[in-house]
Every structure is written in structure tokens, then in C-alpha cells.
TrEMBL record:
This is Glycosyl transferase, group 1. CDD domains: GT4_WbuB-like. Residues 401-421 are annotated as: Disordered. Keywords: Transferase. One of its GO terms (molecular function) is hexosyltransferase activity. InterPro entries: Glyco_trans_4-like_N, Glycosyltransferase_grp1, PEP-CTERM/XrtA_GlycosylTrfase. It comes from Caenispirillum salinarum AK4. Residues 408-421 have a biased composition (Low complexity). Residues 16-191 form the Glycosyltransferase subfamily 4-like N-terminal domain.
Length: 421
């Protein structure tokens, strides 16, 4: 069985999206499935038309002549889909897959559906977040405006015309069912991690600790991208209250993003700049040393549709490496964390509640070993890539006739492929 994955972007670009893709592809190959891969124009890192990264070959979509990133909205998205569709036709003829597996957004799913029809191939559409909600969270659209409604309609069209649909969270599945999508069409294949990849030394690097001024401190940490929905402003607003109760606490923010400048200004306005360490982005190979400095990882996501429907990767990574996790009680976090059992939850958008939760967790260190053990067992048992990717068998299986479940080199050619080869 050969699966052609249609992707927004991939490694060597680093993001939660590309890391999930990498986990899926590696485990699918470990199961004996053949995979090939195409990225859209949104893979903006320069490279050859076919590029090897992390031991995988990715087909890239070239920018059409005369089509730049500055095109008008709608025209830009239409051009992106047309470019993806044209490149996908080329790759299908070359790779001869059994299944097209398009990953969100709908800008990838629509070309996949059209090409699937052309070649008589089934299409799986994997939704990691709704494109319209992501646009709202990034400030490029407003909930309910014409662009939001149009994007939502495009997503719904893609879901209805795909052969099968997967989502990364129960919240996303529930939203699709409310749109009238048949329950049997939608399978949840959640986020996962490779627990072995997140082993920590358990020791702080003394030089890094000294350089950041964190010696003798209790460190609350966040490592990732600084978007508004992450709620990092709430963590800073809670810090004066936390400091009054526990003056030894410092906040370590590793990363960057659209909120970076605003967060630095807010820390100064609140009078806590001396208690917050902003490192900026750090090389991926050095991230673990920063994790080792953290006592409690805090994920204070704000409550919006995106955070209620989508489960993030970062808390799972923290649980895998044996770090205490304190997170806001939004839907995406509730699918990962059982309060007091595998981590701790607090009411979202409430700095006072966050401050009280920090005090409660730090006062309850005797319970940490049991909580951390339960969290690690949950990740290994239910959120490993081996356990999660096994669910694709139930999605792919009904789409591929037994006669085509043979070595890829012997797979028959769909009629259109043979006619056009």
C-alpha cells in the first residue's frame, strides 16, 4: 500500500505541523507502508524540486511564473490550489499511489479531491485545525466575517467530498458531526510523541543556569511560539501575585513570535521584567538544555474556539520527559490532562486562578512522583506514535481492495494513469 501525503509544509522547516508529519511518516514506514510526499507553496524554505530531509524525500511545488505572495486574497489562495493541483498530478503519475492523504488546511484537500477524482483514487483528509479558526487566532480574519464564512464553507466542502476524514481531537470531530458529517466518516487520530526522544538528563546545565541568572530559582517555563492564543500575557499578569507568595519563582520564555515585543513591554509595565527571562529562539539541538532548567511547564492557553477544539503537542512532550504540567482548562488540554492525576488544570483567562494554581502545585511536591509516573505511562500507552498510527489501518483498509495490498512495485495502475503514462 502506497500513500501520497499532501502537506502544507515539512521538515527541514520546524513547527508542530512538521513534527507531527514526521512522526506519522516514520511510523507508517515502520509498519511496512510505502509513503511519498508533496508540499504546497507554503513550504517557503528554498530547495530543489525534490528534497531529502530526515531521511525522507519531499516533492516541492514550484511558484508559478508571475505569481507572488503579494497577490490579492482569494486570488492568492486560488493560485495556490491550482499550483498544488498541477504538481500533484505530476507526482501521482510518477509515484502511482493507492491513497491520497491530504493534511489541513483545505487548500491541500481541495486539490487532492479534484486529483483523486481524476485518477480514481480515494482521498483521506486530515484536519489538524480548522483553517478559519487559525486565521482568526493569527489576526488575518474575524469570526463570522465574509472571509471566515467562505473559508468554513471550503473546509466543509472538502470534508463532504473526501472519502474519509481524520481529526487530531475529539473537539474537531464533534464540530464536524454538528455540521452533519456522518459519524462513521470521521476518525480521531490524536497527537502523539516519541517518548524516547524526550529523555532528559534531570540536571541543570550550570553554565546556562548562571548565564540566564536562574541559580537557586524555581522556574516556570514555556518553550514554543508566542501567539496570542497561548495566553502568555496571563502568565505575566499572574507573576506579581506569584512573586508575593513565592519570591524565588522566575519565568523562562524560550522562543519568539508575533507576541514577543508586546510580552516584553508588558513585563516591564507590570514591574516583573527582572523576574522574566526571554531567550529568543534557540537552536533545536539546544532546546533540551533549556527544558532541563524548568521546574514546572505552564501552558496558559486562552479560551477560544481554536484552543477548545485542538490538542497541542507541547504538553505531551513535557509529560514524556517527566516534567510537571500546569495548563489552562480548555478543551484541547482536557483531552490530554487529568487534573491532579497526570498534571494540573486551572480556569483559563484568570491570572489570579493561575497564581493560586502555581502556589498549589509547588506546595504539593510530594505528589509529583505519582503524577509524573502516571503522565509518562499515559504517553507511552496511549499517545506513542506506534499506538496512534495503528489507527490509520481502520481508515485506509476499507479504501484499498485486497488485490492492491501488495508490494508497491506490483500495484496496478488506475486507468487514467495508464492512459496518460
Amino acid at each position: 500500500m502506497k500513500i501520497l501525503h499532501v502537506l502544507d509544509h515539512s521538515v527541514p522547516m520546524h513547527s508542530g505541523y512538521s513534527f507531527r508529519t514526521l512522526g506519522i511518516l516514520r511510523e507508517q514506514r515502520a509498519r511496512g507502508w510505502d509513503t511519498c510526499h508533496l508540499t504546497s507553496l507554503k513550504h517557503t524554505r528554498e530547495g530543489p524540486p525534490e528534497e531529502e530531509a530526515e531521511g525522507l524525500v519531499f516533492h516541492r511545488t514550484p511558484m508559478p511564473p508571475g505569481r507572488g505572495a503579494g497577490a490579492w486574497p482569494l486570488l492568492r489562495e486560488h493560485a495556490l490550489m491550482r499550483a498544488t493541483e498541477a504538481r500533484l498530478i505530476e507526482v501521482v503519475r510518477k509515484e502511482r499511489p493507492d491513497i491520497l492523504h491530504a493534511h489541513s488546511p483545505a487548500l491541500n484537500a481541495v486539490p487532492a479531491v479534484r486529483v483523486g477524482r481524476r485518477f480514481g483514487l480515494p482521498v483521506v483528509y486530515e484536519i489538524r485545525a480548522f483553517w478559519e479558526d487559525a486565521a482568526v487566532s493569527h489576526g488575518t480574519a474575524r469570526a463570522g466575517d465574509w472571509r471566515y464564512r467562505l473559508t468554513r464553507a471550503l473546509e466543509t466542502w472538502a470534508v463532504r467530498h473526501a472519502t474519509a476524514v481524520t481529526t487530531i481531537a475529539e473537539g474537531l470531530r464533534g464540530d464536524l458531526l454538528a455540521r452533519g458529517v456522518p459519524p462513521e466518516k470521521v476518525t480521531v487520530i490524536p497527537n502523539a510523541v516519541d517518548a524516547d526522544a524526550f529523555r532528559t538528563s534531570g540536571r541543570r546545565d550550570p553554565d546556562l543556569e548562571a548565564r540566564l541568572g536562574l541559580g537557586g530559582c524555581v522556574v516556570l517555563g514555556f518553550l514554543g511560539s508566542f501567539y496570542g492564543y497561548e495566553g502568555l500575557d496571563g502568565l505575566l499578569r499572574a507573576l506579581p501575585d506569584i512573586a508575593r507568595r513565592r519570591p524565588e519563582v522566575r519565568v523562562l520564555l524560550v522562543g519568539g513570535g508575533p507576541e514577543d515585543a508586546r510580552l516584553r513591554a508588558l513585563a516591564a509595565d507590570l514591574g516583573v521584567a527582572d523576574r522574566v527571562v526571554f531567550t529568543g529562539r534557540v537552536p533545536h539541538a539546544e532546546v533540551q538544555a533549556y527544558y532541563d532548567l524548568v521546574d514546572v511547564l505552564v501552558f496558559p492557553r486562552a479560551r477560544i474556539r481554536l484552543t477548545d477544539l485542538v490538542t497541542p503537542l507541547k504538553p505531551l512532550e513535557a509529560m514524556a520527559m517527566g516534567k510537571p504540567v500546569l495548563a489552562s482548562d480548555v478543551g484541547g488540554h482536557r483531552e490530554l490532562i487529568r487534573d491532579g492525576a497526570t498534571g494540573w488544570l486551572f480556569p483559563p483567562d484568570d491570572p489570579a486562578a493561575l497564581a493560586a494554581a502555581v502556589d498549589r502545585v509547588l506546595a504539593d511536591r510530594a505528589r509529583w512522583p505519582a503524577v509524573l509516573e502516571a503522565a509518562h505511562a499515559y504517553v507511552e500507552g496511549e499517545r506513542s506514535w506506534r499506538a496512534v498510527v495503528a489507527r490509520y489501518e481502520g481508515v485506509y483498509g476499507p479504501l484499498v481492495p485486497p488485490s492492491r495490498r501488495r508490494p508497491t512495485s506490483a500495484a496496478p495502475q488506475p486507468a487514467d494513469m495508464a492512459a496518460e503514462a
